What we know:
- The protein is mainly α.
- Helix content is 88%, strand content 0%.
- α4 packs antiparallel against α5.
- It is flat and about 55 Å long.
Amino acid sequence: MIQRYEKIIKRRRAFAIAFALLGAAILIALFSIQSDRVPHHLYPFFGATGFSLIANGVVSCYRKNKLLHDAESLQKAAFLEFDERTHEVTRRSAYLTLLVLLYAGWIAAVAAAFFSETVCYTLMGCIAAGLVIFVVCYSIVWKTI
């Protein structure tokens, strides 16, 4: 079990490094592209996205390295990761969160219909995408049980 979890942690560390590199690539592209190609109001968005991806990748990589170097912490984390109770709590909380977000999106779409047709259709598209994501994730989770 520990060896399997160690492989999982190493894979997650590689994803963390990839996120940090993606953030760096976004910042490099943002600062090297001519100013007329990117709308002015998107600079803060892309800058914050780049910096947050770098910060997330660095912190996550640090935590994974720290976990890999401490055998006792690795064993505790592996036990928590593979515990059935943890999986059940995660499934239930994810299901409840998705339902709340879908209902909130529906309420927002109904309220937006009185003010803006574009916003209403955008919210309906988000609800449809959320439902598709829900069905895909639900089928993946139940196939892995």
